[in-house]
Design goal:
- The complex is a heterotrimer of chains A (662), B (323) and C (152).
- Chain A is an alpha/beta fold and 662 residues long.
- Chain A folds into 5 domains: 124 residues, 3-Layer(aba) Sandwich (Rossmann fold); 147 residues, FAD/NAD(P)-binding domain, CATH 3.50.50; 70 residues, no CATH class; 166 residues, 3-Layer(bba) Sandwich (FAD/NAD(P)-binding domain); 56 residues, Alpha-Beta Plaits (2-Layer Sandwich).
- Chain A has 18 helices and 34 strands.
- In chain B, 31% of the residues lie in helices and 14% in strands.
- With 152 residues, chain C is an alpha/beta fold.
- Chain C has 5 helices and 4 strands; from the N terminus they run βαβαβαβαα.
- Chain C has a 4-stranded parallel sheet with strand order 2-1-3-4, with helices on both faces.
- In chain C, helix 1 crosses helix 4.
- Chain C is globular.
- Chain C starts with 9 loop residues before the first strand and ends with a helix.
- Classes of the chains: A alpha/beta (662), B alpha/beta (323), C alpha/beta (152).
- Chains in contact: A-B, A-C, B-C.
- The interface between A and B is medium-sized, with 19 and 29 residues.
């Protein structure tokens, strides 16, 4: 093998048992023995948990006492503990980039069936790392200024909570919301389980605090279109959609709404149970309380012809049909994504009759019906206006079902119980049936709430409903009713429940554009479309992109307390960054020696981040350090290998290949 | 005091290198004045046995041109190494394997089959092939054994310096000889072993007179398929030009007259595999609206091996085709 | 499985943002796949130089996998477009070198596709197993031995 450029290296190899996670599969002593036999390896050791303090101390002691000048830790994924070990190495006086991680857990012990094979693979992985580390060079993290502003994307309860926390800490927060008002799904709810707090009563004050906060810049009816830059220095473009109302002049008086001649626009806020106008304010507590003109329904905007009664009605003259979308450029140091969820499209399960049978309704529709500010003024009524004498609530619609979503949506059992309670409260004589698979009441006070509902006379039937049909007209006692067919698995009988109303407890799903959003911000989605956190346990609100955090249902279905807790955690994560004046970024970026460059311009046109410029005076391409993100495309594209990507040099990669195949 | 001794040898090569030496014109007299030419089969009548009879290191400077593709080439490489203080791989074939290196896509047997049987102008119904040993009344005649794999000189023997080019440019040859003569006369140190002499340390683009801009190509063109344009970089016009992966030193002669660089000066410093590098570079500058479209265009490059490895196959990572 | 069955040696180049994390996800999900592939991490698949691929074959790899983000998902916007362009050229080149181009494979595996990673690796290993050993190092060693024998 090739010799190091820095004299004879002394490598320490530290193999982690990770309890039984590695040692249960890999013969760690054999691997340690093998590692010890590799060239330049001065010491190889095994320890139960390398990442623990005593584990790190072993490495630090060897660095200080044995003169170990290069370290390989064979343990978990570098995504997990590379920062831990780099810190440990650095604090022992060794440059942190003279460290290499060999991933023998995620890439070996956890995925390999046979222990002998897993042991052999671990040896190869370590061999590659040992070969590589010989050629690693000390690097210094690059320190760049930290922008102290923050961006929050999504104005539901998670975004509101995160924005308020950071604004209270003194940071300028840009809150971008796609809809005309913040509030999200929580604004639609009537009560919240299990405490039965009025949703509006607890949310509205927070919404208005956002609206009034001097540090929060609210961008509603806006979407992020471009994200560039890196931690500490993100450049974000936001498209402020034209709302055809001058938000500074509008007073929210709603006179335009009253005068608008287009009256039959389905009201999204009320789940299309009633209509709104083309000029509208989504709901009375909207923040900002400003009108929006629906460009798809407004006659003036669609046909160019309208009496423009709204313009006449508007005292301040806020309506402006000439308004155009506006591109706003923001610079922020950290980003929190709280883009929420959508509910399952119930029509996909045709046998439940949603969309066909009028009184089969979705959970959000019931939220609106039971809400005092909803389309029925809080009266729980069927489509014919009559009070239902019996209601069935079908659980797991689109959840826990391999045909739709494998996962449990976590909140349906609880909101179904809440619905039962609300029905019983409004209509004590009404029968309520819950058709469930399992009752999942895992939160604080949840099981107690379930018990309480059992005492309120709700009928619990253990079984997933098979179908909902209209009852036959020939049987007088069930005429006009819906028949829910369900197998009561506890009794072992199939039941046909005649009811007046069926509520489908619809699953929570990722937003339809979750994938595009994840791509925009540079992290991944699970196959279900939920954003992937950096670590499921220890970094649940971080993403693989430094400086970008996630919170709430965009990360996975969860209830309000968990969402708020995550929002707080994300805010704390962002604050821990933006409270610093500078941020250290990975120095694994490219460098071009002007003496070697021939000025052919190939790399200049290829850099995805425009970080390479041609310097006419030097007749050479040059890398703008702060803009380079370290993809290495210039290195592989340059015909003469002049750009060098620090930490990923050809020499290092070649050595790694040699080691992997040794 | 006798003059230092000079040798030049022609292994597997076209002979262009021999003629290239004459590109130094009247300076050849200076060579003759400063050196005692002891072995140069093309120019002087010395035999192998004369070289064999020399003491080790007796020759000061040997310019070895041509690749090693048979047992005779290899024997001479070893012999001249033993007898020379300074062994120079002269020209693309000795330095990189050169054009003969392209034979590494075949085996010796396949080549013989093509030459003696499948060649359209050959009638050989009895499948007569040259034999390596043949008895005649005067004794045994032998032909060298043809190897499957053509090698550059340094894959066979220790090489002190390289003078690249197909062939090396006259002024570059003279510059090297002049330097060596100067050191002989006035003393001084020879360059470090392994140095590439008579060439630069950047790429052909550095010497090329054309204007370079960002490159985004949408298809590959032949030089005659584009309108005459003496200004624009050939790659930018879609012509596959090896300039970016080729060491400078030629003065950009080909590109200045509209012919793309073919890579004869070998890879620039820092590049180990000229062909793979060219593939990487060329594929990187394809521009289309989608990666699928880029892949489609990339797939139309007519002959990646013959184009990217015209001179460098023998010295590439894989050296030859799989047998 | 017989003890003498050919076990392919495979090098995988994984981009740090998608495929490496996808492989990690296969691990955290405890998916099982054969052990023949040794992963090498680069920041972007666009960093993978065809020279690295050649190096891997020259060092004895029987197969080489390059795995990056799906087009459009690249952490570096379009770094993987470069990979997409190099791949068909490399295939063609390998074919000219009488190396079955199936020994080189390009896959897009996202951070969410642990299952795809496990499947791709399993399939690729099986494919290379069927192609048999490439044995570059042996070929080179044999050749030198033969030529030196003749020359001596």
């Amino acid at each position: 093998m090739a010799e190091s450029t820095n004299g004879e290296p002394r490598i320490g190899v530290y193999v982690c048992d990770c309890g039984t996670n590695i040692a249960g599969k890999v013969d760690v002593p054999a691997v340690v023995e093998f590692a010890g036999s590799l060239p330049h390896v001065a010491v190889a050791r095994e320890y139960k948990y390398m990442c623990s303090d005593p584990g790190q101390e072993i490495i630090q002691k060897d660095i200080k006492e044995m003169g170990i000048d290069r370290v390989v830790v064979a343990a978990c994924s570098p995504t997990m503990h590379e920062p831990t070990f780099r810190k440990a190495v650095q604090s022992a006086g060794l440059n942190q980039f003279l460290f290499q991680m060999a991933n023998i857990r995620e890439h070996d012990s956890w995925v390999t069936e046979d222990p002998v094979e897993a042991t052999e693979k671990a040896k190869h992985i370590i061999d590659a790392a040992v070969h590589r580390v010989v050629f690693q060079e000390p690097l210094e993290a690059i320190e760049v200024p930290m922008n102290s502003d923050v961006l929050v994307v999504g104005g539901g309860i998670a975004g509101i909570e995160a924005a308020l926390k950071m604004a209270d800490a003194g940071h300028t927060v840009h809150l971008v919301e796609r809809d005309p008002s913040i509030g999200g799904h929580m604004a639609q709810f009537d009560k919240t389980f299990p405490t039965l707090d009025c949703s509006a009563c607890i949310l509205t004050p927070k919404m208005s605090a956002v609206g009034k906060h001097p540090n929060i810049k609210l961008h509603t009816y806006s979407e992020v279109t471009e994200v560039d830059g890196y931690v500490g220095n993100f450049k974000v473009k936001v498209n402020k959609k034209a709302r055809y109302v001058d938000i500074d002049k509008c007073t929210g008086c709603m006179l335009c709404t009253e005068q608008c001649v287009v009256a039959k626009v389905p009201n999204e806020f009320n789940e299309s149970l009633d209509n709104r106008r083309a000029a509208y304010i989504p709901f009375p507590q909207a923040v900002p309380l400003r009108a929006t003109i629906d460009p798809e329904r407004c006659l003036q905007l669609t046909r160019g012809k309208c009496k423009q009664t709204c313009v006449e009605a508007c005292g301040p003259g806020a309506i402006d049909f000439e308004q155009k979308d506006e591109l706003v450029e923001l610079e922020v140091g950290a980003i929190i994504i709280t883009t929420g969820y959508q509910t399952f499209d119930n029509e996909r399960i045709a046998r439940y009759g949603y969309g066909q049978l009028p009184d089969v309704i979705s959970s959000l529709e019931f939220e609106r019906i039971s809400n005092a500010s909803g389309p029925t003024g809080g009266e729980i009524v069927c489509k014919n206006g009559e009070k239902p004498r019996s209601v069935a609530i079908l659980h797991c619609v689109g959840s826990r079902d391999e045909n739709y979503n494998e996962y449990c949506s976590r909140v349906c059992c609880m909101y179904s119980l809440k619905f039962s309670h609300l029905i019983k409260e409004h209509l004590p004589e009404t029968e309520v049936y819950q058709c469930y698979i399992d009752m999942r009441c895992f939160g604080k006070g949840y099981e107690e709430f379930y018990k309480r509902l059992m005492n309120e006379g709700v009928v619990f039937i253990r079984g997933r409903a098979a179908e909902v049909t209209a009852a036959s007209k020939r049987q007088a006692e069930t005429e006009g009713k819906l028949l829910v067919t369900v197998e009561d698995t506890l009794l072992g009988v199939v039941r046909h429940l005649p009811v007046d109303m069926v509520i489908l407890s619809s699953a929570l799903q990722a937003q339809p554009d979750a994938k595009e959003v994840a791509q925009l911000f540079g992290f991944g989605c699970s196959s279900a479309g939920f954003y992937i956190e950096r670590h499921p346990k220890l970094e649940p609100v971080s993403t693989v992109t430094d400086g970008i955090f996630i919170a709430g249902c965009c990360q996975g279905p969860k209830d309000i307390p968990d969402t708020v807790a995550q929002a707080g955690a994300a805010a704390a994560g962002a604050l821990a960054l933006v409270d610093n004046r500078t941020v250290k970024i990975e120095p694994t970026i490219s460098y071009i020696d002007p003496e070697k460059c021939s000025g052919c311009h190939i790399c200049v046109g290829l850099c995805p981040h425009n970080a390479i410029v041609y310097d006419a005076e030097l007749d050479a391409a040059q890398v703008i350090e702060a803009a380079c993100k370290g993809c290495g495309v210039c290195v592989s594209a340059c015909g003469s290998n002049v750009p060098v990507q620090r930490g990923f040099t050809d020499e290092q990669i070649f050595a790694e290949i040699e080691g992997a195949l040794a | 005091m006798s003059k230092p001794k000079f040798a030049m040898y022609w292994a597997a090569a076209c002979g262009g290198c021999e003629i290239a030496v004459l590109q130094i014109k009247e300076k050849i007299l200076e060579v003759a004045e400063n050196f005692d030419i002891v072995f140069w089969p093309v120019a002087t009548d010395f035999k192998y046995k004369d070289v064999e009879a020399m003491a080790d290191g007796e020759i000061l400077l040997t310019l070895f041109n041509g690749a090693v593709r048979n047992s005779e080439n290899e024997y001479m490489a070893h012999l001249l190494r033993q007898k020379s203080q300074v062994l120079v791989a002269f020209g693309a074939c000795a330095a990189q394997g050169g054009i003969p290196g392209l034979a590494n896509v075949s085996t010796a047997a396949e080549i013989k089959e093509l030459v003696y049987i499948d060649n359209p102008s050959v009638q050989n119904p009895d499948r007569v092939f040259p034999v390596e040993r043949f008895e005649v009344p005067e004794g045994e005649l032998d032909l060298p054994h043809l190897y499957d794999t053509v090698r550059a000189l340094d894959q066979v023997e220790d090489v002190d310096y390289y003078i690249p080019g197909c062939p090396p440019e006259g002024p570059q040859i003279w510059a090297v000889l002049e330097t060596i003569i100067g050191i002989l006369k006035n003393g001084g140190d020879l360059p470090p072993k392994g140095t590439v002499l008579g060439a630069g340390t950047k790429t052909c683009c550095d010497e090329c007179s054309r204007v370079k801009k960002e490159k985004k190509i949408t298809g590959f063109k032949k030089p005659w398929e584009v309108p005459w344009d003496p200004e624009t970089c050939l790659l930018e016009q879609g012509i596959i030009c090896m300039g970016p992966v080729t060491r400078d030193g030629c003065g950009g002669r080909c590109t200045s007259v509209g012919m793309p660089c073919r890579g004869c000066y070998g890879p620039p410093p820092g590049v180990t595999d000229q062909g793979a590098k060219m593939l990487s570079t060329l594929a990187s500058i394809i521009d289309a609206e989608s990666p699928e479209k880029i892949a489609e265009i990339a797939a139309t490059v007519p002959d990646p091996l013959g184009t990217f490895y015209r001179f460098g196959l023998a010295k590439s990572m894989l050296r030859r085709a799989k047998v | 499985m017989s003890a003498h069955e050919f076990e392919p040696r495979i090098v995988g180049f994984l981009c740090r943002w998608c495929s490496y994390n996808g492989a990690d996800l296969a691990g955290t999900s405890r998916m099982k796949y054969p052990p023949n592939l040794i992963p090498i991490k680069t920041n972007c698949s666009g960093r993978v130089d065809p020279t690295h691929v050649m190096k891997a074959f020259a060092e004895g790899a029987d197969g080489v996998l390059i795995s990056g983000c799906h087009p459009g998902d690249c952490h570096y916007i379009n770094g993987n477009w470069r990979t997409a362009g190099r791949y068909p050229m490399m295939k063609k080149l390998l074919e000219q070198l009488n190396i079955d181009p199936r020994r080189l494979r390009l896959e897009w595996v996202s951070a969410a596709e642990g299952d795809k990673w496990a499947r791709v690796v399993t399939e690729f290993i099986e494919e290379v197993r069927e192609l048999g050993p490439l044995g570059w190092k042996d070929q080179v060693a044999d050749e030198y031995e033969q030529q030196e024998a003749v020359s001596a």
